[in-house]
Hints:
13% helix, Neuraminidase, five-stranded antiparallel beta sheet, 3 helices
Amino acid sequence: xxxxxxxxxxxxxxxxxxxxxxxxxxxxxxxxxxxxxxxxxxxxxxxxxxxxxxxxxxxxxxxxxxxxxxxxxxxxxxxxxxxxxxxxxxxxxxxxxxxxxxxxxxxxxxxxxxxxxxxxxxxxxxxxxxxxxxxxxxxxxxxxxxxxxxxxxxxxxxxxxxxxxxxxxxxxxxxxxxxxxxxxxxxxxxxxxxxxxxxxxxxxxxxxxxxxxxxxxxxxxxxxxxxxxxxxxxxxxxxxxxxxxxxxxxxxxxxxxxxxxxxxxxxxxxxxxxxxxxxxxxxxxxxxxxxxxxxxxxxxxxxxxxxxxxxxxxxxxxxxxxxxxxxxxx
Length: 330
């Protein structure tokens, strides 16, 4: 009888310890909850980390796009070294943003840089997936997918007049359907340039590099074009006024169709790290971009836990997405 009693006591102790373990797990989960919510409607007066703990995390996030209805967000999520990058979708239902989910068309290849057109029913993006039935191709090209009855179709590549054996990145389209993108081509101006392909009679025409007001002998890349093609924001690396790592620049087109000399967007936007991937939400009046800026910690690290917390913090130097009111950059 004493032995049986000991077994019962041991069993109760086991149950008690198991409950303590579950409570500790719950406590750990609670501390990992997002520190902010998703808010695209309010205009930010200052530079704000967007969706901390939900979108902007310790991983690498970049390339945000918001659909015209304001109920979908797509961004690129990568691991720390960006050896894996995929398109992630957030949907708003019944006034509430759901948890981020990988898009059905992404996850196998390197998929980056989403851009909505056709009132949110067509998604352009860049990917290194095999193209034109050539399994040996792993260069980046521009693809698109159509939303049909709420589901995204199997992506299709643009014509070879756009997609070469070199890399094509960051598609951005105006209301006219003209395509702006990044590439390195023989007819370019610098080491990497921004090109534009006119859309005419259902087809894209041969791309041409943008003028010297935009492109230079350095690197120009990741250009966002306004719907009316009267504003362009892009990144450049290697210019004399670069604050470090690559900065965002702006140019406007006058009534005569001439671009103004591009100007550095200044310390309000740019840091001494890479700042790129611009996007404007015209409906709500906010400007978004990606930055590798980090929080400087000059304190002595006392233990292993401290360096782990620093490494896994949101501002650890990997990409995050920032938001500021469009009126602040004007």
